[in-house]
Specification:
Length: 353
C-alpha cells in the first residue's frame, strides 16, 4: 500500500502556536468550536454535531436549501484545523477520476505516473454532492469506508485525519440526483442548518456585510491534535446497557411498519462512536443513554426509507426515529468504568406537534 502525502496543499506554518492536547484536551475542542461559531451565527447545536462527527472519525452530510450556510460551515470547520483541505464542486459532468485521480503515461520515464485527485486531503469538502451522477458519487465509497483509493490495481492510503464534509440540496430541488443508499450509509450523521433566528441574521449582516469572515479565520488546532483526540475518544467507556440500548434502537428501525429499509449494522457502530465523542465533548470518559438519544435522529434518519403509504400519510424518517425513542426502554442506571453507578436520566425527546 502506498501512502500519498500531499504536503504542498497544507496551509499554515509548522511553528504556529496551538492549544496542545497534552496540556488540556478540552482546550483544542473549545478553540475549534469558538472559531467555527465566529462564522456560523446562532447555530451552536449544529457546530457541536460537526465536532462530534470529526472526533468520532466519521463523515458529515449537511442538507438544506441553498443559501443557509452549508458550505460556510464546511469551510469554517476545515480552516479551523491546520490540515490539507480540498474542495470539490460536484456537477453533472464531473468524472470519478476527477475525485480519485488517474494514472498518466510519462514519456520521459516511459511509465505510468499517478496523479492524485481531490480526495487526497485531510478534509474534503464535497459541495452539492447530489448534483453529480450516481457513478461519480460512487467514487467516494471506498475512500469514505476504508480511507484508501485503488487505481489500476494500486492502493493508496489517505492521510489522517480524514473527513468528508458534503453538502446537498433537498431532492425536490431541480437538477439533483438522490444519493444511493450505500452512499448515505457511509455518512455518520446528517444535519440541517435551517434558517437563522432574526437576531442572529441581524448580527450576520454586521459581520458578513462588508467582509468574508473566512478570510480572517486562522487555524486554532493542528491535525495531530485531532488525531490524538480521536484516539482518546476510542477509549471512552460504554457500558453494556448503553450498547444494548443502541442495538435496540437500530433493531427497531428494521421492523417498524412505516419503514421499508431500516438502519444497518454500520449505523449501530456509528451511533456508538458518536455517543463516545459526545461524552468526550461533555468532559466524561463514559457514555450515557442520553448521548445515544441526543444523536439518534442525526445518525439514523438519513439511512431510513419510509414506505409509500407512510410517505402518503406525511410521515418522515425523523418522526419514525422520534417514535422509536419514545417506545424503546431506557436503561435506568449505567455502570461505568471506575466510577460506580451513574444515573441515566433517559430524557425523552419532545413530541412533534
Amino acid at each position: 500500500m502506498t501512502t500519498y502525502d500531499d504536503r504542498a496543499s497544507r496551509g499554515g506554518a509548522p511553528d504556529r502556536a496551538y492549544a496542545r492536547v497534552g496540556d488540556d484536551p478540552t482546550a483544542v475542542v473549545e478553540r475549534v468550536r469558538a472559531s467555527v461559531e465566529s462564522v456560523i451565527e446562532g447555530k451552536p447545536e449544529v457546530v457541536r454535531l460537526a465536532l462530534t462527527v470529526l472526533l468520532a472519525e466519521g463523515h458529515l452530510l449537511i442538507e438544506d436549501v441553498p443559501g443557509v450556510g452549508k458550505t460556510m460551515l464546511a469551510k469554517a470547520l476545515a480552516r479551523s484545523v491546520d490540515c490539507s483541505v480540498r474542495r470539490i464542486q460536484f456537477t453533472p459532468d464531473l468524472l470519478p477520476s476527477d475525485i480519485t485521480g488517474v494514472s498518466i503515461w510519462d514519456q520521459q520515464r516511459r511509465d505510468f505516473e499517478f496523479k492524485p485527485g481531490a480526495i487526497f486531503a485531510q478534509v474534503v469538502i464535497g459541495d452539492e454532492i447530489n448534483r453529480a451522477s450516481p457513478k461519480t458519487q460512487s467514487a467516494l465509497l471506498e475512500s469514505m469506508e476504508e480511507r484508501q483509493v485503488t487505481i489500476d490495481g494500486q492502493t493508496y492510503e489517505l492521510p489522517s485525519p480524514f473527513m468528508v464534509v458534503a453538502t446537498q440540496n433537498p431532492v425536490e430541488m431541480e437538477g439533483t440526483y438522490p444519493l444511493p443508499e450505500a452512499q448515505r450509509d457511509r455518512f455518520m450523521a446528517r444535519v440541517s442548518i435551517g434558517y437563522p433566528h432574526p437576531e442572529a441574521e441581524l448580527r450576520m449582516l454586521d459581520v458578513h456585510g462588508g467582509v468574508n469572515p473566512l478570510d480572517d479565520l486562522q487555524p486554532v488546532a493542528h491535525a495531530h491534535d485531532i488525531v490524538k483526540l480521536a484516539e482518546a475518544v476510542r477509549e471512552v467507556h460504554v457500558a453494556e446497557p448503553v450498547r444494548r440500548y443502541a442495538v435496540d434502537l437500530v433493531a427497531a428501525t428494521r421492523t417498524h411498519p412505516d419503514l421499508r429499509l431500516g438502519a444497518s449494522p454500520r449505523a449501530t457502530l456509528h451511533l456508538l462512536r458518536a455517543a463516545k465523542a459526545a461524552a468526550a465533548l461533555g468532559g466524561r470518559d463514559y457514555a450515557l443513554p442520553d448521548d445515544v438519544q441526543a444523536l439518534a435522529v442525526a445518525v439514523l434518519a438519513h439511512r431510513l426509507l419510509p414506505t409509500a403509504q407512510a410517505q402518503l400519510n406525511g410521515a418522515t424518517a425523523e418522526q419514525v426515529v422520534q417514535e422509536i425513542l419514545r417506545h424503546t426502554p431506557v436503561p435506568a442506571t449505567v455502570r461505568h468504568h471506575g466510577l460506580g453507578a451513574a444515573p441515566a436520566h433517559g430524557r425523552q425527546p419532545p413530541r412533534r406537534p
